[in-house]
Design a protein that fits this description.
Two copies of one chain form a homodimer. Chain A has 313 residues and is α/β, with parallel strands linked by helices. Chain A has two domains: 208 residues, Rossmann fold; 91 residues, Rossmann fold (3-Layer(aba) Sandwich). Chain A is 48% helix and 15% strand. Chain A is built from 14 helices and ten strands. In chain A, the strands form two sheets. Chain A has a six-stranded mixed sheet with strand order 1-2-10-7-8-9, sandwiched between helices. In chain A, strands 5-4-3-6 form a four-stranded parallel sheet, sandwiched between helices. Chain A starts with a helix and ends in a 12-residue tail after the last strand. At the A-B interface, helix 12 of A face helix 12 of B.
Chain lengths: 313, 313
């Protein structure tokens, strides 16, 4: 593994002119409910509405001027696409975003609004990768993969860097896992800062490739996702699997019903808007309370790009 | 008028151990849409979910020990009731809250959760006042009126004190008007700090007693409210009318449709949860853009206690 804490620190310096230092929130009533103390890192307030801007911005600004001149390309069900579009805009370069048919309308509108070119393809990993490869070939654009790209992973890690700078020592960190870029990055940052910290990844039962992979000891790539968490349907990558094992991340599964209940609690008690993929972290804290009771926990609320016409409760 | 800036400063000191210093948010995209720059004071993050805690807390802690021992009583369609219940709890005294039939369920649950005693009455001003008077007579509880009480008005003013301490000089402040306690308090604070500042009150067209009163030059008290803004249905008081005139507050009416659209924009762009009564401020900025264009505006987002099962769009 070539990624180290220095890469997270470099990412933090690189994105500082562009990214927000997001708010950390606490709630007495949620602490009482959960039996632990939770510092919520509000990445729903990040630019483009999700932590994804950190990684995308780091990747865009890590390119040489010669590479950057040809633009960037990626595939994304939404938040990474919007993040890369905005990151490219901060550097004044072109962005191509390959999106699967059926992606959330609000997320597609955001990608377009940031000036990127949308390319629709069938909702399969093969179709996405082929379309990306073709565009890269035709335009010379640099591929910025949503979660296996090392600059992306390093950028996501800055969320933990900021959180732990603000809170000081915590006993545990928990973040959603989809492709695994976020939990990988924050694991590198958190373990370097506080070696005793425990790391948890919250994963929908209907897209439990990380949970199954750790259980079986091999990367499971044949799970067909069935979850309301549209940001967590990706099949995680080899580098992401390696990071999970290297940093002893424990995966905590949650049902969609638990995720929806947790999402509603966040709206009601924190008075903030998050998307289902963000709510898995609180859902896991509440479901697996015996693993987390009495700890000082940092929870990454990963984004807020929810379709307000179709709230899930 | 006996209320002065010193009263607001005293209120700020009195409530400091109990109330939150709330976040101030900005949004590039909302600024572009509105054609001005807006600093949103997020009172939805205040304790009990609304600015009302400021006034209630100031009133509760301004009581002598002998008065406080008998508890407090008020009538409120919701947020002031919850705020007074929580304020009473911070001092360990009893709270009685008279609520009209048909009040928002989530707000009633909050009042109960803070340990207050609920008393239901018919949804008329006469019924509320009679019930309050009876309870005060029977228990000796001090009446804390939701918007004519001077300690309440002074407490609400601390929202502007905090906002202007954080932002420095602004050209205008805008807040919702229901009973008028909030706009009255912030007018006193803001004009003392920045004498040139313009003051605007945003009011639903369906409850336009303040607008009509200023137009006719007499306090209009016979308007039957018809608006989605459940926190803005009260008929404002004599002291509140005096403050509007003394501080040259301009009332900007908005339709419920404009309020709902603005509420949705806040959810979408700021990623925070507010109630309809809060959204009137942004709705007025967008509707009356010729009055506000290019100004540096402070807008009070007054609360976040919305019924999540019945969002209005």
């Amino acid at each position: 593994m070539s990624l180290a804490f220095a890469d997270i620190e470099a990412a933090a310096r690189r994105i500082a002119p562009h990214a927000h230092v997001t708010l950390v929130m606490r709630s007495r009533s949620l602490d009482e409910l959960a039996g632990c103390t939770i510092a919520f890192k509000c990445e729903n307030f990040q630019r483009a509405g999700a932590f994804k801007f950190r990684g995308a911005c780091n990747a865009v600004w890590a390119l040489s001027d010669a590479q950057a001149a040809h633009g960037v390309v990626t595939h994304s069900s939404g938040n990474h696409g919007a993040a890369l579009a905005l990151a490219a805009k901060t550097r004044g370069i072109a962005a191509h975003v390959v999106v699967p048919e059926g992606a959330v309308a609000a997320k597609l509108a955001a990608i377009r609004a940031y000036g990127a070119t949308l390319h629709t393809c069938a909702p399969t990993l093969a179709a996405r990768e082929e379309t990306c490869a073709r565009i890269a070939r035709e335009t010379g654009a640099a591929l910025v993969h949503p979660f296996t790209n090392e600059d992306v992973i390093a950028g996501q890690g800055t969320a933990a860097l900021e959180l732990l700078h603000e809170t000081g020592a915590l006993d545990a960190l928990i973040a959603p896992i989809g492709g695994g870029g976020l939990i990988g990055g924050i694991a590198i940052a958190a373990k370097a800062m506080f070696p005793q910290i425990q790391l948890f990844a919250a994963e929908p039962e209907g897209a439990a490739d990380a949970f199954e992979s750790l259980r079986r000891g091999v990367r499971v790539i044949d799970i067909v996702p069935d979850t309301i968490c549209d940001g967590l349907r990706a099949t995680f990558g080899e580098i992401n699997f390696s990071l999970l094992r290297e940093y002893a991340v424990e995966v905590l599964p949650v049902s969609d019903a638990q995720t929806i209940a947790a999402m509603r609690l966040v709206f009601e008690r924190l008075k903030i808007v998050i998307e289902p993929s963000s709510a898995v972290a609180l859902a896991a804290i509440l479901r697996h309370r015996e693993r987390i009771a009495r700890l000082r926990v940092g929870a990454i609320l990963s984004g807020g790009n929810v379709d307000l016409d179709h709230l899930p409760w």
